[in-house]
Amino acid sequence: MQLLKYDVELRNVNKKFGTINAVDNLDLNIKQGEIFCLVGPNAAGKTTTIKLILGILKPEKGDTNIRVKGFNIPAEKKKLRKIMGYLPQRKALYDMLTARENIEFFAKAKGLSNSDAKINTSAMIKRLSLTEHQQKLAVHLSGGTQQRTALASAMVNNPQIVFLDEPTVGLDPVLRREFWEYFKQIARSQNTTIVVTTHYLNEAEWADRVGVMRDGKLIAIETPQKLMEQTNQHNMENMFFELIKGETQ
Amino acid sequence: MRLTFLIMKRLFRTLSRDHRTVGLVVVAPALFMVMFGIAFGGEIEHVPIAIINNDSDAEVVITYGIFIVFNETVSSLGDSITNTLDLDDPRVDVTHLTDYESAKKEVDNKKYACAVLIPVNFTYNLVSPQGSNISLEIYFDNSNPQVGGVVIQAIQESFQQATGEFRANLGFDVTYAYGKDISTLDFFTPGMIVYGVFFFSFMLVIMTLIEERRSGTLSLLLQCPYDKIEIILGYLAAFSIVSTIQTTLIILIAGLVFQVSLGVTIANYISLYIAAIIVGWTGLVLAIFLSAFARSEFQAVQFIPITIIPVLLLSGIVIPLSQIPEIIRWVSYLLPTTYSVDLLRQIAIEGYVLEPLNFGLLFQISFVLMLVVASRLTLKEN
Predict the structure, then answer these.
(1) A-chain residue closest to B226, CA distance
(2) Do A78 and A4 sit in the same domain of this protein?
(3) Do A56 and B227 touch (CB under 8 A)?
């Protein structure tokens, strides 16, 4: 097994849908324990990148260009899934299960024993303030509570690497802030690697590093502060438009 | 009226952009009517029967008082009847046998629909004034009354035609191998179990899987550290219980409300449940496989004309296979439900107890295994 410097490494990864290059010659390193945020307009390739790393999609040139530290991919794909968490764009919950049942189901599906699944579920319910909603059917929960339940389901196995695809979409600013505080807390306390995609550019400021994608290409990758300095901007939104402008010219 | 017009225009515009729907609008009714027409337009033909003809030409002595008027040789009526059935009647295919007891066993084994014994001196007894009354023995499988009725009619017509004026002293002694007191409901209920269990398994599973895919839970399941086959097996296990509940309901309602008996012994009922669960599996694996090709519940419904309708019309549920024209009968033999219907009828009507090497059972299990493997390949997030 090759020793990797980074937790996740992508080298010259390509993905086409028909004639469109959804991901175009992508080189990307994600460090252990960092919160890495992928930003970009619609159809920039953010979700495709996450799906490529997770193995949901196959890259054009085979799996060998995507590596995760400590795992021989694709041979150890299943082993890797035990330590990974994933929150898809949609609120992936079973409507007719309660919030608790949903979280516990995914804990067990991730390979936890029955007793560990119960313990972790209770811990996640407490951590994400779901106590008063835990016995409600998912279909009867508000959008924000559904998203918290979905996040709890993604994190219930205490994953070492988590991929969160637009986890804060549709949430109010208070809840968005709560989510990011939670991401920071687990990244710092458990050394969890967190990869987040978002449309909300101001959120990207809370990440350790930001990758800016456009048309399947990674056009910049740096800490939020350095990106703002490089573009002489004071906020992420302006930084983003400055970068895009530069790319277009 | 403005909104009515707008809605109509919008519906046509959106429907015309969904090519599959356009196909459905045109192809579905055409396909349905063609299948319906072909299936119902045929006649029951080529039903295999066995005839044991021990008859021979007869020397008939015609007397008047104590005077012999004349001797006459009458050609064997048995030969005439056999030839009529063999050469001129498309409803039956005649096999000539010599031993009635072994022919009866073949009827028990479903090789022939009936065995007819034309006895020694049949012609003599029928036409000679010295002849005695004859009772013609027929050993008869009436487990499918639609087919049975046609076979008995063919046999009786041929005897009546051949014996003409002499038929007054001819009787039919019919012994039933299966289905002596069978009612229409007795006959159709096993088929309805197949249809009900298949239909609900198929529809419930395809809808559930599309919902799993649409909601994103399938993505999460596919990210779990298990093989995809476990997702399929989970569905199989759950819907086995659903099939059992459905079968129980049908048995209870058929038995308690309509006095239909679907078995005699516990072994019969166990066989019935096993066969019904396997029917559920066939619907389920087909649904899992096809769900990969439908993005919405609306598209799932579009599979009905190519799945549920052929099952109803071509599996022998309402139309006997021998009535389905040969040009389309091969489709029947490819449908696992054809074997399910046959198996459930054998169990419910004939008291058959399932054996592991039953061809129908093996065909259905092979179908399930084949589609489980195919579904494992097609079960993807998108």
Answers:
(1) A78
(2) yes
(3) no
Residue A233 lies in a domain: no
A143 to chain B, closest Cα gap in Å: 14
- Whole-prediction pTM value? 0.78
The pLDDT tens digits along chain A (249 residues) read 444 556 888 888 889 888 888 998 888 889 889 999 999 888 889 999 998 888 888 888 655 567 777 776 666 777 888 888 999 988 889 999 999 999 999 999 999 999 999 999 999 999 999 999 999 999 999 999 999 999 999 999 999 999 999 999 888 889 899 999 999 999 999 999 999 999 888 889 999 999 999 889 999 999 999 999 988 888 888 888 888 776 665
A-B Cβ pairs (cutoff 8 Å, strict): 49
Q: Is residue A101 part of a domain?
A: yes
Residues 6+ apart with CB under 8 A from B197: B243, B246, B247, B276, B279, B280, B283
Cβ neighbours of A111 in B, within 8 Å: 224-226
Q: DSSP letter at B97?
A: E
Q: Which of B216, B221, B227 sits opposite A109 (nearest CB)?
A: B221
Based on C-alpha coordinates, what's the Rg of chain A?
18
A contacts of B220 (beta carbons < 8 Å): 86, 88, 92, 106, 109, 153-154
Task: For an interface test with A, give the residue of B217, B218, B233, B380 to mutate (most A CBs within 10 A).
Answer: B217
Distance CA B114, CA B146 (A): 14
- Are A208 and A167 members of one domain? yes
Tell me how close the Cα of A5 comes to any Cα of chain B, in angstroms. Answer: 25
Q: How many domains would you assign to chain A?
A: 2
Of B216, B224, B226, the CB nearest to A92: B216
Specify which residues A84 forms β-bridges with: A161
Q: Are A143 and A175 in contact (CB under 8 A)?
A: no
Domain ranges across chain B: 47-178, 183-378
**Residue A108 is part of which domain span?**
90-158
CATH for A211: 3.40.50.300
| Cα B263-B266-B271 angle, rounded to 5 deg | 70
DSSP run (H or E) holding A4: none
Domain B47-178: which topology?
Answer: abc type-2 transporter like fold (3.40.1710)
Q: Which residue's structure tokens are 């097609």?
A: B378
Same domain, residue pair A1 and A33: yes
| ipTM score above 0.90 | no
